[in-house]
Amino acid sequence: MDIEKSIILEIFKDITFSDKEVDLIESKLKKLELKKGTTILQAEEIVNSQYYVYDGCLRTYFIDKSGKEHTLQFAINDWWISDYTAFFTASKAIMHIETIQKATLYRISRTSMEDLFIEIPQLETFFRKKMEKAFASFQNRILASLAQSAKERYLSFINTYPNIEQTVKNYHIASYLGITTESLSRIRKEISLD
Amino acid sequence: MDIEKSIILEIFKDITFSDKEVDLIESKLKKLELKKGTTILQAEEIVNSQYYVYDGCLRTYFIDKSGKEHTLQFAINDWWISDYTAFFTASKAIMHIETIQKATLYRISRTSMEDLFIEIPQLETFFRKKMEKAFASFQNRILASLAQSAKERYLSFINTYPNIEQTVKNYHIASYLGITTESLSRIRKEISLD
Predict the structure, then answer these.
(1) Do B143 and A62 touch (CB under 8 A)?
(2) Which CATH code for domain B2-116?
(3) CATH for the stretch A2-10+17-119
C-alpha cells in the first residue's frame, strides 16, 4: 500500500496528513486503469464522482442538437475532471468524458468528499483552491472567446496543454477553439511562417 | 446595528450563526453606497476584495489592445463580484468593474475571509458552494459560446438577468454576447415576430 500513500501525498501536495488521515483518504479513492477510448461519463447519467488524472489524457465534450461535438476541456496529468455543473448539484450530465489515451485515474465520490471535509478540513480548503483556479481559467477562456482572435486562442491552448497536440485529433482541437479544422490548418501554417 | 445583522443573515442565508459570529462578520464587512457610474476596480490594481451586491447593478468588463470593451458579467442583487482570477491570487486586475445603477455593496477583503474561515468553518463551505455555482455558470457560458447561436445566447442572457434590459446599454449587452449592436437589434426583432 506504500505506493498508494505516495500517490495520495502527490495528489494532495502541500498538505501534511497523519497516517490515519492517509488511510482514510485511501479508503475513499478508487484507482482506474483505462484503455484509450473509454467513456467514463455519458450525458444523461447522474454525476456522483470526480476523477484525478494521474496519467493519460481525457476530453470532456458536449453534443449539440444537430449532433455536432464541442470540446469543453482536455485533462492531463494532475488535473481533476468531471461534469462539474452536474457533479455539484448531483444532477444529470450534459457532457461526455472519454479517455483519448490510456489513462490512470483516481475516482472519488461527492459523498466521500463530504465525509472527508468533516474529518480533514484541510481538504475542503484544498478543493476550494482547486475550484478557484479552475474558475479563473474558465474566466480567462470566456474573455478569450470574446476578445481574442482564433490564432491567439490557439497559442494559449498550446500554452495550457503543452505536448498535447500529438495526442489529440485535429477536430478535437478545432472544436475546443470553436473553429473549423480548415481554420486550424491555416493558423498553424501562419504560425510556422511567423 | 440590528439592520446590519439582518443583512448578514440575508447574505449568508441557510447558515445559523451565534451572536458572537454575527458580530465578527459585521466587523469584516464594509458597506458602500455608490452612485451610478462609479468604478470600484480598475485594470492593473491589486485585487484584495470581493463585493456583495445588496442592490443595484454592476458590470465587469475587459478592454482589449484595440481599446474595445468586452463585458464579462453583470451583477445584480444577491451576486458576488470581483475580478476573481486576480482576487484568488492577490494579483493585478485585468478587468474593470463599474456600477451601472446606484448600488449598495458590502465589501470583504481576502484576508478577512481567511480569518473568518478559521473562526467560522461554515463560511468556507458557503463560499465553496458559491464558487461551485459560479463555476457551473461559466462552464455553461463556454458551452454556449461554442454550441449556441447568438439568438439562443440572448434568450439565456434574459433568463439569467431578468429585468436587466431597462438598466443596461445595448452595446453592453452586445459585448457580453460577443456580437454587434446591429445583430442584437436584428435578434430582438426576430424574437418579437416569433
Answers:
(1) yes
(2) 2.60.120.10
(3) 2.60.120.10
List Cβ neighbours of A139 (8 Å cut-off, separation of 6 or more): B72, B84, B85, B138
Kindly list the residues of chain A whose beta carbon comes within 8 Å of any beta carbon in chain B. 62, 64, 68, 70, 72, 84-85, 88-89, 94, 117, 121, 124-125, 127-129, 131-136, 138-143, 145-147, 175, 178
CA distance B189 to B194: 9
Q: Which residues in B lie closer than 8 A to residue A178 (C-beta atoms)?
A: 145-146
Taking the alpha carbons of B153, A128, A140, B40 in that order, is the dihedral positive or negative?
Answer: positive
Which residue in chain B has the smallest CA separation from A177? B146
Residues with Cβ within 8 Å of residue A144, at least 6 apart in sequence: A152, A153, A156
ipTM above 0.85, yes or no: no
How many angstroms separate the CA atoms of A57 and B57, rounded? 42
pLDDT along chain B (194 residues), means of 10: 79 93 95 97 96 95 91 92 91 95 96 95 91 87 88 91 86 91 94 86
Q: Which helix (H) or strand (E) holds B73?
A: strand B69-75
> What's the CA gap between A145 and A149, in Å, rounded?
8
The length of chain B is 194
Burial track B4-23 (b if 16+ CB lie within 10 A, e otherwise): eeebbeebbeeeebeeebbe
**What does the alpha-carbon distance between residue B177 and residue B161 come to, in Å, rounded to a whole number?**
13
